[in-house]
Amino acid sequence: xxxxxxxxxxxxxxxxxxxxxxxxxxxxxxxxxxxxxxxxxxxxxxxxxxxxxxxxxxxxxxxxxxxxxxxxxxxxxxxxxxxxxxxxxxxxxxxxxxxxxxxxxxxxxxxxxxxxxxxxxxxxxxxxxxxxxxxxxxxxxxxxxxxxxxxxxxxxxxxxxxxxxxxxxxxxxxxxxxxxxxxxxxxxxxxxxxxxxxx
Length: 199
Fold this sequence. Notes:
The chain is an alpha+beta fold. It has a single domain (about 1-199), classed as Aminopeptidase (3-Layer(aba) Sandwich), CATH 3.40.630.30. About 40% of the residues lie in helices and about 25% in strands. It has six helices and seven strands; from the N terminus they run E-H-H-E-E-H-E-H-E-H-E-E-H. Strands 1-2-3-4-5-7-6 form a seven-stranded mixed sheet, sandwiched between helices. A hairpin with a 5-residue loop joins strand 6 (about 145-155) and strand 7 (about 160-165). Helix 4 runs antiparallel to helix 6 (about 165-199). It is globular, with a radius of gyration of 17 Å. The two termini are about 30 Å apart.
C-alpha cells in the first residue's frame, strides 16, 4: 500500500467519492457533506493499492472552523473551549476515515492509525480531535483514553462523542493500537481463516 498526499481537485473528488461510496456499501449514510473547499484547506491522504487505485484515506483538518464541532448541537457548541489549556490554533482533527472492503482492519490498526498518531506527534499541533456516531467505532476510538469533550445526541440526531487526545494520550493510544488492538485483530483474522478452511 502506498500513502500519498492529495493536492489536485480531481484527486480530492476521487477521495470524496470513495468516502461516500464506502458508507453506502456498508449500509450506512453519511450525515454531512464534505465540501471540496474543506478538503483543499486540510491535509488529505489517500491510500493506493498496487494497481494505483485509491482504497482508503483520511483527513487531518488543521484550520478552524473544525468540521467535527458541527456535530455538536449549537447550544452546546458555543460553550466549548479548547481542552488541555490549549488554543484553537493548537488543535487539529481527524475526519473522513474510510476504507474499501479489501483493506483489512489489521492494516488500519497496524499501519494507518499509527501513521496518524505519529504525524500529529511530530507536528506543531498539541491536540487531536476525533468524533464518532457509532457504538462500535466509539469503543475502538476511546480505547486509547481520550478526553471526552461532548457526549450526547449529535446535530443529526444520532448518539455521538467528541473527544480529544493531547500528546501523552496520543502516545498511550499508539501503544494501545500497536500492542493490544492489532494483535487482537490478527488473532480474530486467523481464527476466521481457519474456520473457513475447516468448512
